Amino acid sequence: MNDPLNVVGRSVERSDGIGHVTGRTVFASDHVVPGMLHLKMVRSPLHHARIRGIDTSDAERVPGFVRALTAADVPHNRYTILGLIGVEPEEEFVLAEERVRFKGEAMVAIVAETEEAAYEAVAKVHLDLEELPAVFDVEEALKPGAPVVTHWGNNTFMYEGHPCRRVRLGDVEAAFARADHIVEGVYDTSPIEHAPTETTGCIAVPEANGRYTVYTNTQALYFSLDNTSIILQVPGNQLHFVGGTVGGGFGGKVDVIVEPIATLAAMKTNRPVRYVYSRAEEMQVSSTRSAWRIYLKDGVTADGHIIARKVTSYADSGAYSRQTPYALTKHAANAAGPYAIPNVSIDAYCVYTNRQPTSAMRGFGVTMASFALEVQMDKIAELVGLDPWTIRFLNAYHDGDMKPHRKLAEDATLIETMQAAAALVGHDLAPDLKAMTSAPRGRRGEESGRP
Amino acid sequence: MTKLRGTGIAAVNYPTGMNLGGDPSQALIHATTSGSFVVSLSATDLGQGLKTVIGQIAAETLGVEFTEIVVDTADTDTGPHDMGTFASRATHRVGNAVIAAALEARQALLEVASEELEAAVDELVFDGHCNLMVKGVPARSVKVADIAALAQFKYGRTIAGRGSFMKPKSTVDPETGAMDPDSTEAHACTVADVEVDTETGEVRVLSIRSAYEVGRQVNPALVQGQIAGGAWMGMSHALYETTAPYYPAPDHSPKDFSEYLMPGPLELPEIECVVLEMPSSNGPYGVKGIGEMTANSPIPAIVNAIYHATGVRIDSLPVTPEKILRGLDAKRATPS
Amino acid sequence: MASTIVTFELGDDREVEVMVRPMTTLQTVLRNQLGLTATKEGCRQGGCGSCAVLVDGEPMLSCLLPVEDVAGRRVTTLESLTPTEGLHPIQQAFIDGYAFQCGYCTPGMVIVAAALLDHDSAPSVDDIRWALAGNICRCTGYGPIVEAIGAAAETIGAGQVEEPR
Amino acid sequence: MTVHSYYLPRSLPEALDLLADHGPSLLVMAGGTVVMPLINEGLSLPEAVMGLRRAGLDRLERTDGMLTIGATATLTQLLEQDAVPMLRDAARNTASWSIRNMGTVGGNLFTPPPGGDVAVALLALDATVTLASATARRDLPLADFYTGFMTDRLADDELLVEVRVPIPTAPTAYIKFGRKHANTPAVVTVAVRLAWDGGAVTDARIALGAVGPHPIRARDAERWLIGTTLGPDAIAAAASAAAKECEPFTDAIATDWYRRRMTGVFVARALEQLAPGAGGKGG
Lengths: 451, 336, 165, 283
Hints:
heterotetramer, B: alpha+beta, Aldehyde Oxidoreductase, domain 4, 2 domains, four-stranded mixed beta sheet, 6 helices, D: alpha+beta, Uridine Diphospho-n-acetylenolpyruvylglucosamine Reductase, domain 2, Uridine Diphospho-n-acetylenolpyruvylglucosamine Reductase, domain 3, Enolase-like, domain 1, 3 domains, five-stranded antiparallel beta sheet, four-stranded antiparallel beta sheet, 31% helix
């Protein structure tokens, strides 16, 4: 691009480069505070159970033990991360109450002088649990009689009265009836860990002025601060969150799991408290990318135009939904793909199971839709006898096309991007494909080709 | 031992930002006495290079050198509110906020310079290298650093700016799903080449070649970094990663990097890309978001390439060697 | 649980003496007692390589080493590898090649690369990849890191910069 | 329990005395690559630990026809020796560079999945392990050492002090197959050593890792090879026998089904490396 810009558009050296290559960059867990206590969590050994009793008396006798925190110690123990933007209901427990809903759920926070003492005390907390039946499959969870994970009686997140996020454009059934082919597919993906090299963690430090400084690797400082303020029922101005440099996030550090409990522990002990996930906790307890099951049904004309697409998606939210309800909406907004399809019906379900909770991850709700849609496109191409390039050009959206969620497409450049990819790999596109542009249909004399 | 090769493609779009709750970012800028500028944010840098690109956008807007900008992402006491770094939103949202803040600071700078140079504000221009001059009269020029010092010691003025950008909340129609969820769309098309060992089901990804359209690139090297890292992550998602290897069964969940499989340096394919720049209408200097999308198109491209190589369709991720081998067995058992 | 005093050499010219409880790891001593936080803490399982240091010039994982085991030995961390002025050629190559994003794995990568180039001044691409097989990077996809180490080897080999060891 | 005592004996007798004094509560650690993660995560809370890094057990010695490997010789030392190429291959395919600088040959015998990749090679090489206590010393063929899943014949008062390996005179083959090409757990590990006389196989050792409760010999497969010239039929028969007789398990890396299938594939591939005209690796 030839704009008269000085700095934008130039590959300047990273401003954090020297810090990173010398190791001088300070990450959250690099703060070492004198007198720092260590927090380790007693976690549920079962996927689903009723809590009959928790006995910390042996743990309290471990040398170096300082404090045990249970649900009763947390001022506003039931919360939901997205409550900040009005999402309801409050559904997750900072520390488990009455039931545990996934293996690894936080039950008792142990604070001790050393990590070793904390581990030893954790091992000496006795749990009295009554195991309950658990459910791990999204469609099993929706069947009558399935174990109920939530506290409201069914296993779906409710979207304004619907058990799923709906998108409707045109008349899918009528279009299926006149389609030459129906192409159906079921796509499954399994949960994925963010695996940042720096695990999630924070250090909460009581300050002289009655405030608490929290060094954290959250991806969203105010999100963490505001949720901590709600959970601990303290004014936000009592909290000072410091971070901004994150050792890999990928969405995993948008949750607010470590800060509230570490800050509470700092309040209760008046000592700095460090709570940093072990790698095993990061993998087995922290949120993952949801597993998805996506049913696609497409109505296609003999010449390869997709005239109807029906999508039924289930995201396995795990025991608590965190950011996943939002992912379903983003999924629903994008589940038809970068294609112009006049009749679309999307039902996207956020389903609770007894699995570790899920949340945001890079590509939030879209990555797995793209997998399903783009494999489906190849199946359609094969069925109608077109090559994989042509089928995509034929159906690509243009500026001004109406998307299923009824926003007109703008900044559409799929066609140009595919042309560039073909050129990159030396694939010779047919002249008509080479000549296409994403400009609004009807201009440049281009045929819309819609049936 | 037979090895089969195949090629697959995939094309995707990806939205920038998400605003179902309102999506604000804010920025503050102030000049130090030496004429460098501090940008205060509460947005975070995950490694994608936010501090660098925001520094570039601030420098561009202020008309000073990039090296004069300090970006602080550290602190809720000093950084104004920001939703956070996710949804491919940071460069777009924070960039717009920083432009607004920089324009305000720039105006303050111009007003002081106008007094000092005894020229009207609209007669003044920046040379992009930390000097202000009267248009067409290079002799009547003053350093930004000097203006910053004069502002504070002679004129008693602040050189500062506040900036905010918010995509207003869009409510979703519960019946039709009508909504305005994002600001713009970036695009990608990936071509993957694979080789499959028909005895073991092992997939070797030979190359991942992509075209991207990401609006304006603020820093092309950082864009390339996202594309290369995302290609690797996409390959990793396609073939290796899972916290539940036998999903939906919860058994054998990994606890370390031995069990949680991700490709290492020895699995690295050839990664190549070309980047188109078609500026967005609402991003800072035409930016679109690229942070998240780079893992997306490689996944179906690889899965489609495996089908092309073997004739086996695998519709569940990750595509393990066992799934391919069982598919090949089934295909051998029922010759078409 | 009596503490003991352990002495080891840090870098080329500094002897350090620390008082530790039994089996405190070298990682904990470096980070919490000596303030040397370039040595990272990514897994404490031996699986990520972000805590790599050199012990008598050979890469080892400080999370798996009781500090008693390095008594009397020479420990090189990224701080000791970094010249007082300027950067080690590997560090410069990482900056020039954008061979990091979040920077958390970078110290371990640079340490292992330094050991590699010490053993073999002109490693093949495959040698570099093998050397890095114990270091996890979640951001870059490894390509830029492998290239940067190759570039550093060329810089050092061309004698443009003395490798400061 | 927070560790109260960490012992770093300077000699084998000192180590054996410590073991005799403390009994089985003394946790013995060599390279630390297995024990330290457990301690770091609070999964193991020992009161007393003995580290063997300074006990002088790390020598590699080649005497006529025999390689003697001290129990705490590192995997890097094993990679750098040239007497037994199969052990070089095994070391190279184990873990990462840093771990090889720390992990030991003796420790590898006790490493998951159960029994490490080096142990598989040692089994194929007819290695002998030497076990010592404060009062006695005994040798045991490695083939008799393991008794079950994570169980063996090491007594509570004994340390494994060295491994003795007859240096093979004919080419051997070693393949570790994992989901990645380096630093990854085995789906299956195959080590093969054959003895030949005039173009015919006279003796065979096929050792398998990650497909049993411990490294195992594929004895049925071995029998299929005796007397053959290692032609395609013999290889196929042995591969199929090995797949049948192995006892694979399912874990995060692979299912038992896949492991069994890969056992057949990689026994065949290992044998093909040794078939006449294949140009196998010397020694």
